[in-house]
From TrEMBL:
Domain ArsA/GET3 Anion-transporting ATPase-like: 1-298
NCBIfam families (alphabetical): GET3_arsA_TRC40
EC supergroup of this enzyme: translocase
Protein name: arsenite-transporting ATPase
Keywords from the UniProt entry: Arsenical resistance, ATP-binding, Hydrolase, Nucleotide-binding, Translocase
Gene Ontology molecular function terms on file: ATP binding; ATP hydrolysis activity; ATPase-coupled arsenite transmembrane transporter activity
Organism, scientific name: Prosthecochloris aestuarii (strain DSM 271 / SK 413)
Catalytic activity: arsenite(in) + ATP + H2O = arsenite(out) + ADP + phosphate + H(+)
Enzyme Commission number: 7.3.2.7
Higher taxonomy: Bacteria, Pseudomonadati, Chlorobiota, Chlorobiia, Chlorobiales
Function: Anion-transporting ATPase. Catalyzes the extrusion of arsenite.
Domain ArsA HSP20-like: 320-382
Record's keyword annotation contains ATP-binding: yes
Length: 384
Protein backbone atom coordinates (compact mmCIF):
# COMPACT_ATOMS: atom_id res chain seq x y z
CA UNK A 1 0.00 0.00 0.00
CA UNK A 2 1.34 3.42 -0.97
CA UNK A 3 0.13 6.97 -0.28
CA UNK A 4 1.76 9.72 -2.39
CA UNK A 5 0.93 13.38 -1.70
CA UNK A 6 1.86 16.11 -4.16
CA UNK A 7 2.49 19.55 -2.67
CA UNK A 8 3.43 22.95 -4.05
CA UNK A 9 2.45 26.50 -4.77
CA UNK A 10 -0.74 27.13 -6.75
CA UNK A 11 -0.19 27.20 -10.51
CA UNK A 12 2.95 25.02 -10.69
CA UNK A 13 1.11 22.13 -12.38
CA UNK A 14 0.51 20.00 -9.31
CA UNK A 15 -2.78 18.55 -10.57
CA UNK A 16 -1.27 17.59 -13.94
CA UNK A 17 1.74 15.93 -12.29
CA UNK A 18 -0.50 14.10 -9.79
CA UNK A 19 -2.83 12.84 -12.52
CA UNK A 20 0.16 11.83 -14.65
CA UNK A 21 1.59 9.81 -11.76
CA UNK A 22 -1.73 8.08 -11.06
CA UNK A 23 -2.18 7.19 -14.73
CA UNK A 24 1.30 5.67 -14.93
CA UNK A 25 0.68 3.57 -11.81
CA UNK A 26 -2.69 2.37 -13.15
CA UNK A 27 -1.19 1.38 -16.51
CA UNK A 28 1.49 -0.62 -14.70
CA UNK A 29 -1.32 -2.90 -13.45
CA UNK A 30 -1.91 -1.42 -9.98
CA UNK A 31 -5.27 -0.14 -8.74
CA UNK A 32 -4.89 3.53 -7.86
CA UNK A 33 -7.16 6.24 -6.51
CA UNK A 34 -6.32 9.88 -7.15
CA UNK A 35 -8.15 12.41 -5.00
CA UNK A 36 -8.12 16.19 -4.95
CA UNK A 37 -8.28 17.95 -1.57
CA UNK A 38 -8.09 21.41 -3.14
CA UNK A 39 -11.24 23.51 -2.73
CA UNK A 40 -10.71 24.85 -6.28
CA UNK A 41 -10.79 21.44 -7.97
CA UNK A 42 -9.24 21.01 -11.42
CA UNK A 43 -8.67 17.25 -11.39
CA UNK A 44 -11.82 16.58 -13.43
CA UNK A 45 -10.54 19.01 -16.08
CA UNK A 46 -7.16 17.27 -16.23
CA UNK A 47 -8.73 13.81 -16.61
CA UNK A 48 -11.53 15.00 -18.88
CA UNK A 49 -14.29 13.32 -16.84
CA UNK A 50 -17.00 14.39 -14.39
CA UNK A 51 -15.97 13.70 -10.78
CA UNK A 52 -17.71 13.72 -7.40
CA UNK A 53 -16.96 12.79 -3.78
CA UNK A 54 -17.45 9.13 -4.76
CA UNK A 55 -14.62 7.41 -6.69
CA UNK A 56 -15.25 7.23 -10.46
CA UNK A 57 -13.45 4.70 -12.68
CA UNK A 58 -11.64 6.75 -15.33
CA UNK A 59 -10.06 3.76 -17.07
CA UNK A 60 -8.89 0.30 -16.07
CA UNK A 61 -7.33 0.44 -12.56
CA UNK A 62 -7.61 4.26 -12.39
CA UNK A 63 -10.17 5.80 -10.03
CA UNK A 64 -10.60 9.49 -9.21
CA UNK A 65 -12.59 11.70 -6.81
CA UNK A 66 -12.82 15.29 -5.58
CA UNK A 67 -13.36 15.90 -1.86
CA UNK A 68 -16.59 17.84 -1.19
CA UNK A 69 -16.34 19.26 2.32
CA UNK A 70 -19.89 20.60 2.63
CA UNK A 71 -21.45 17.37 1.33
CA UNK A 72 -19.35 15.32 3.76
CA UNK A 73 -20.34 17.54 6.69
CA UNK A 74 -24.05 17.25 5.88
CA UNK A 75 -23.78 13.48 5.51
CA UNK A 76 -21.55 12.49 8.43
CA UNK A 77 -21.18 15.48 10.76
CA UNK A 78 -24.80 16.63 11.07
CA UNK A 79 -24.77 17.02 14.86
CA UNK A 80 -21.71 19.27 14.87
CA UNK A 81 -22.77 21.13 11.74
CA UNK A 82 -26.34 21.71 12.95
CA UNK A 83 -25.07 22.91 16.30
CA UNK A 84 -22.90 25.66 14.86
CA UNK A 85 -25.51 26.55 12.23
CA UNK A 86 -28.15 27.04 14.91
CA UNK A 87 -25.85 29.25 16.97
CA UNK A 88 -25.17 31.47 13.93
CA UNK A 89 -28.86 31.68 13.04
CA UNK A 90 -29.70 32.59 16.63
CA UNK A 91 -27.18 35.42 16.28
CA UNK A 92 -29.07 36.77 13.25
CA UNK A 93 -27.38 35.07 10.27
CA UNK A 94 -29.75 33.81 7.58
CA UNK A 95 -29.87 30.08 6.92
CA UNK A 96 -27.67 30.09 3.79
CA UNK A 97 -24.94 32.22 5.41
CA UNK A 98 -25.13 30.15 8.60
CA UNK A 99 -24.60 26.92 6.65
CA UNK A 100 -21.52 28.33 4.91
CA UNK A 101 -20.01 29.73 8.12
CA UNK A 102 -20.73 26.59 10.14
CA UNK A 103 -17.61 24.94 8.68
CA UNK A 104 -15.53 25.47 11.82
CA UNK A 105 -11.75 26.08 11.57
CA UNK A 106 -9.88 22.86 10.97
CA UNK A 107 -12.95 20.92 9.81
CA UNK A 108 -11.99 21.06 6.12
CA UNK A 109 -8.53 19.66 6.86
CA UNK A 110 -9.99 17.01 9.16
CA UNK A 111 -12.49 15.86 6.52
CA UNK A 112 -9.80 15.72 3.81
CA UNK A 113 -7.69 13.54 6.11
CA UNK A 114 -10.71 11.34 6.82
CA UNK A 115 -11.11 10.69 3.09
CA UNK A 116 -7.47 9.62 2.86
CA UNK A 117 -7.88 7.40 5.93
CA UNK A 118 -11.06 5.76 4.55
CA UNK A 119 -9.44 5.06 1.16
CA UNK A 120 -6.33 3.61 2.79
CA UNK A 121 -8.40 1.40 5.12
CA UNK A 122 -10.73 0.19 2.35
CA UNK A 123 -8.16 -2.21 0.91
CA UNK A 124 -9.46 -1.44 -2.58
CA UNK A 125 -6.33 0.28 -3.88
CA UNK A 126 -2.63 -0.42 -4.22
CA UNK A 127 -1.87 3.30 -4.18
CA UNK A 128 -3.54 6.60 -3.30
CA UNK A 129 -2.29 9.76 -5.00
CA UNK A 130 -3.36 13.03 -3.38
CA UNK A 131 -3.52 16.25 -5.39
CA UNK A 132 -3.23 18.51 -2.37
CA UNK A 133 -4.31 22.11 -1.90
CA UNK A 134 -1.73 24.93 -2.18
CA UNK A 135 1.04 24.87 0.41
CA UNK A 136 -0.52 26.87 3.27
CA UNK A 137 -3.71 24.84 3.42
CA UNK A 138 -1.81 21.56 3.09
CA UNK A 139 0.59 22.42 5.91
CA UNK A 140 -2.42 22.97 8.16
CA UNK A 141 -3.83 19.65 6.93
CA UNK A 142 -0.59 17.78 7.72
CA UNK A 143 -0.37 19.36 11.17
CA UNK A 144 -3.95 18.34 11.97
CA UNK A 145 -3.33 14.74 13.17
CA UNK A 146 -0.98 15.97 15.91
CA UNK A 147 -2.86 19.14 16.85
CA UNK A 148 -6.29 17.49 16.84
CA UNK A 149 -5.33 15.20 19.70
CA UNK A 150 -4.17 18.15 21.78
CA UNK A 151 -7.30 20.18 21.05
CA UNK A 152 -9.68 17.29 21.67
CA UNK A 153 -8.13 16.63 25.07
CA UNK A 154 -8.21 20.31 26.02
CA UNK A 155 -11.74 20.91 24.75
CA UNK A 156 -13.00 17.65 26.23
CA UNK A 157 -11.51 18.57 29.59
CA UNK A 158 -12.91 22.10 29.36
CA UNK A 159 -16.34 20.73 28.45
CA UNK A 160 -16.47 18.39 31.46
CA UNK A 161 -15.44 21.12 33.88
CA UNK A 162 -17.68 23.76 32.37
CA UNK A 163 -20.78 21.54 32.38
CA UNK A 164 -20.27 20.76 36.05
CA UNK A 165 -19.60 24.38 36.96
CA UNK A 166 -22.23 26.21 34.95
CA UNK A 167 -24.70 23.62 33.68
CA UNK A 168 -27.85 25.76 34.10
CA UNK A 169 -26.38 28.56 31.95
CA UNK A 170 -24.71 26.39 29.28
CA UNK A 171 -27.70 24.08 28.75
CA UNK A 172 -29.42 26.94 26.94
CA UNK A 173 -26.70 26.93 24.30
CA UNK A 174 -25.57 23.29 24.07
CA UNK A 175 -27.21 20.87 21.62
CA UNK A 176 -29.44 18.11 22.95
CA UNK A 177 -26.90 15.56 21.74
CA UNK A 178 -23.37 15.87 23.05
CA UNK A 179 -21.17 16.81 20.08
CA UNK A 180 -18.07 16.37 22.25
CA UNK A 181 -18.61 12.59 22.30
CA UNK A 182 -17.50 12.57 18.63
CA UNK A 183 -13.99 13.72 19.54
CA UNK A 184 -12.50 10.48 20.94
CA UNK A 185 -13.59 8.48 17.87
CA UNK A 186 -12.23 11.08 15.45
CA UNK A 187 -9.06 11.33 17.53
CA UNK A 188 -8.51 7.56 17.15
CA UNK A 189 -8.84 7.94 13.36
CA UNK A 190 -6.41 10.86 13.38
CA UNK A 191 -3.86 8.86 15.39
CA UNK A 192 -4.12 5.92 13.00
CA UNK A 193 -3.74 8.16 9.96
CA UNK A 194 -0.83 9.98 11.60
CA UNK A 195 0.91 6.62 11.91
CA UNK A 196 0.30 5.95 8.20
CA UNK A 197 1.59 9.38 7.17
CA UNK A 198 4.77 8.92 9.22
CA UNK A 199 5.40 5.38 7.95
CA UNK A 200 8.01 6.14 5.31
CA UNK A 201 7.49 2.79 3.58
CA UNK A 202 3.81 3.71 3.04
CA UNK A 203 3.61 7.50 2.64
CA UNK A 204 5.91 9.88 0.83
CA UNK A 205 5.53 13.50 -0.24
CA UNK A 206 6.61 15.09 -3.50
CA UNK A 207 6.91 18.79 -4.14
CA UNK A 208 6.21 20.29 -7.57
CA UNK A 209 8.14 23.44 -8.51
CA UNK A 210 8.81 25.70 -11.47
CA UNK A 211 12.25 27.30 -12.00
CA UNK A 212 11.18 30.55 -10.29
CA UNK A 213 12.48 32.22 -7.16
CA UNK A 214 9.21 32.51 -5.17
CA UNK A 215 8.17 28.98 -6.06
CA UNK A 216 11.52 27.59 -4.89
CA UNK A 217 11.33 29.53 -1.60
CA UNK A 218 7.91 28.06 -0.88
CA UNK A 219 9.10 24.56 -1.77
CA UNK A 220 11.99 24.93 0.68
CA UNK A 221 9.47 25.82 3.37
CA UNK A 222 7.56 22.66 2.46
CA UNK A 223 10.74 20.61 2.94
CA UNK A 224 11.40 22.24 6.31
CA UNK A 225 7.90 21.65 7.63
CA UNK A 226 7.74 18.07 6.35
CA UNK A 227 10.86 17.33 8.33
CA UNK A 228 9.41 19.15 11.32
CA UNK A 229 6.34 16.88 11.23
CA UNK A 230 8.43 13.77 10.57
CA UNK A 231 7.14 13.21 7.01
CA UNK A 232 9.29 11.96 4.12
CA UNK A 233 10.02 13.95 0.97
CA UNK A 234 11.12 11.47 -1.68
CA UNK A 235 11.17 13.57 -4.88
CA UNK A 236 11.11 17.05 -6.37
CA UNK A 237 9.33 17.52 -9.70
CA UNK A 238 10.49 20.50 -11.76
CA UNK A 239 7.71 21.36 -14.19
CA UNK A 240 7.36 23.72 -17.17
CA UNK A 241 11.03 23.75 -18.22
CA UNK A 242 11.66 25.72 -21.41
CA UNK A 243 13.85 24.38 -24.28
CA UNK A 244 17.61 24.84 -23.95
CA UNK A 245 17.74 27.59 -26.62
CA UNK A 246 15.59 29.67 -28.96
CA UNK A 247 15.97 32.05 -31.88
CA UNK A 248 13.74 34.51 -30.03
CA UNK A 249 15.56 37.00 -27.76
CA UNK A 250 12.66 37.25 -25.32
CA UNK A 251 12.50 33.48 -24.89
CA UNK A 252 16.28 33.31 -24.52
CA UNK A 253 16.12 35.73 -21.59
CA UNK A 254 13.51 33.51 -19.90
CA UNK A 255 15.60 30.42 -20.63
CA UNK A 256 18.68 32.03 -19.03
CA UNK A 257 16.65 32.87 -15.92
CA UNK A 258 15.32 29.33 -15.72
CA UNK A 259 18.81 27.86 -16.07
CA UNK A 260 19.92 29.96 -13.10
CA UNK A 261 17.07 28.64 -10.93
CA UNK A 262 17.49 25.05 -12.12
CA UNK A 263 20.99 25.21 -10.59
CA UNK A 264 19.49 26.61 -7.37
CA UNK A 265 17.00 23.72 -7.26
CA UNK A 266 19.80 21.16 -7.74
CA UNK A 267 21.85 22.74 -4.94
CA UNK A 268 19.04 23.33 -2.44
CA UNK A 269 17.29 19.96 -2.64
CA UNK A 270 20.32 17.69 -2.87
CA UNK A 271 20.33 14.71 -2.20
CA UNK A 272 16.58 14.41 -2.95
CA UNK A 273 16.12 13.08 -6.53
CA UNK A 274 14.88 15.67 -9.01
CA UNK A 275 12.63 14.78 -11.95
CA UNK A 276 12.00 17.20 -14.79
CA UNK A 277 9.14 17.91 -17.20
CA UNK A 278 9.29 20.24 -20.20
CA UNK A 279 6.90 23.09 -20.86
CA UNK A 280 4.15 21.52 -22.97
CA UNK A 281 3.13 23.10 -26.27
CA UNK A 282 -0.52 22.24 -25.59
CA UNK A 283 -2.75 21.42 -22.64
CA UNK A 284 -1.88 18.08 -21.05
CA UNK A 285 -5.34 16.58 -20.55
CA UNK A 286 -6.84 13.09 -20.63
CA UNK A 287 -5.02 9.92 -19.76
CA UNK A 288 -2.99 9.32 -22.94
CA UNK A 289 -1.28 12.72 -22.72
CA UNK A 290 -0.89 12.35 -18.95
CA UNK A 291 0.76 8.97 -19.43
CA UNK A 292 3.17 10.40 -22.03
CA UNK A 293 4.14 13.11 -19.53
CA UNK A 294 4.83 10.50 -16.86
CA UNK A 295 7.21 8.65 -19.18
CA UNK A 296 9.19 11.83 -19.79
CA UNK A 297 9.08 12.88 -16.14
CA UNK A 298 10.08 9.64 -14.41
CA UNK A 299 12.39 8.42 -17.19
CA UNK A 300 12.35 4.71 -16.36
CA UNK A 301 11.65 5.03 -12.62
CA UNK A 302 8.51 3.42 -11.21
CA UNK A 303 6.46 6.25 -9.63
CA UNK A 304 4.77 3.94 -7.10
CA UNK A 305 8.12 3.20 -5.47
CA UNK A 306 9.73 5.22 -2.69
CA UNK A 307 12.10 7.28 -4.80
CA UNK A 308 14.44 8.36 -2.00
CA UNK A 309 14.86 5.86 0.83
CA UNK A 310 17.70 7.39 2.85
CA UNK A 311 17.40 9.15 6.19
CA UNK A 312 15.69 12.51 6.63
CA UNK A 313 17.65 15.34 5.08
CA UNK A 314 16.98 17.54 8.11
CA UNK A 315 15.26 17.47 11.48
CA UNK A 316 14.80 19.69 14.53
CA UNK A 317 15.26 18.47 18.11
CA UNK A 318 15.28 20.13 21.51
CA UNK A 319 18.38 19.15 23.46
CA UNK A 320 19.09 20.54 26.94
CA UNK A 321 16.49 23.25 26.39
CA UNK A 322 17.99 24.44 23.09
CA UNK A 323 16.87 23.81 19.52
CA UNK A 324 19.28 21.84 17.33
CA UNK A 325 18.86 21.70 13.56
CA UNK A 326 20.34 18.48 12.18
CA UNK A 327 21.32 18.38 8.50
CA UNK A 328 22.20 15.11 6.80
CA UNK A 329 25.52 15.88 5.07
CA UNK A 330 27.63 12.74 4.74
CA UNK A 331 31.34 13.22 4.01
CA UNK A 332 31.24 17.00 4.42
CA UNK A 333 34.61 18.72 5.01
CA UNK A 334 33.88 20.65 8.20
CA UNK A 335 36.86 22.98 7.68
CA UNK A 336 35.28 24.26 4.45
CA UNK A 337 31.90 24.89 6.03
CA UNK A 338 30.35 28.30 6.63
CA UNK A 339 26.90 28.92 8.16
CA UNK A 340 25.01 32.24 8.05
CA UNK A 341 21.49 33.43 8.76
CA UNK A 342 19.76 35.88 6.43
CA UNK A 343 16.23 36.78 7.48
CA UNK A 344 14.29 33.53 7.75
CA UNK A 345 16.91 31.54 5.81
CA UNK A 346 19.87 29.50 7.00
CA UNK A 347 22.65 29.57 4.38
CA UNK A 348 25.08 26.65 4.50
CA UNK A 349 28.15 27.09 2.27
CA UNK A 350 30.58 24.26 1.49
CA UNK A 351 33.18 25.31 -1.07
CA UNK A 352 31.09 26.47 -4.06
CA UNK A 353 27.98 24.63 -2.90
CA UNK A 354 25.23 26.53 -1.06
CA UNK A 355 22.17 25.03 0.60
CA UNK A 356 19.38 27.43 1.53
CA UNK A 357 17.06 26.25 4.32
CA UNK A 358 13.95 28.21 5.21
CA UNK A 359 13.71 28.18 9.00
CA UNK A 360 10.46 27.30 10.79
CA UNK A 361 8.95 30.16 12.80
CA UNK A 362 10.27 28.78 16.07
CA UNK A 363 13.87 29.37 14.91
CA UNK A 364 13.43 32.69 13.11
CA UNK A 365 15.18 35.51 15.00
CA UNK A 366 17.43 33.19 17.01
CA UNK A 367 21.20 33.36 16.66
CA UNK A 368 23.31 30.29 16.03
CA UNK A 369 25.35 29.31 19.07
CA UNK A 370 27.56 26.64 17.57
CA UNK A 371 27.84 23.69 15.22
CA UNK A 372 29.38 20.23 15.24
CA UNK A 373 29.56 17.28 12.89
CA UNK A 374 28.69 13.76 14.04
CA UNK A 375 27.59 10.57 12.31
CA UNK A 376 27.12 12.22 8.92
CA UNK A 377 24.99 15.02 10.39
CA UNK A 378 25.78 18.70 10.76
CA UNK A 379 24.20 19.82 14.04
CA UNK A 380 23.53 23.57 14.41
CA UNK A 381 22.56 24.82 17.88
CA UNK A 382 20.36 27.90 18.23
CA UNK A 383 20.49 30.21 21.25
CA UNK A 384 17.43 30.59 23.49
Amino acid sequence: MRIILYLGKGGVGKTTVSASTATAIARSGKRVLIMSTDVAHSLADALGVELSATPVEVENNLFAMEVNVLAEIRENWTELYSYFSSILMNDGANEVVAEELAVVPGMEEMISLRYIWKAAKSGLYDAIVVDAAPTGETMRLLGMPESYGWYSEKIGGWHSKAIGFAAPLLNRFMPKKNIFKLMPEVNDHMKELHGMLQDKSVTTFRVVVNPENMVIKEALRVQTYLNLFGYKLDAVIVNKILPASSSDDYLNSLIALQQKYLKVIDDCFYPIPIFKASQATREVIKTDQLYALSQQMFDGHNPIEVLYADDKTQSIEKIDGKYVLKLHMPNVEITKLNVNIKGDELLVDINNFRKSIVLPNILVGRKTEGADFEGGHLNITFAN
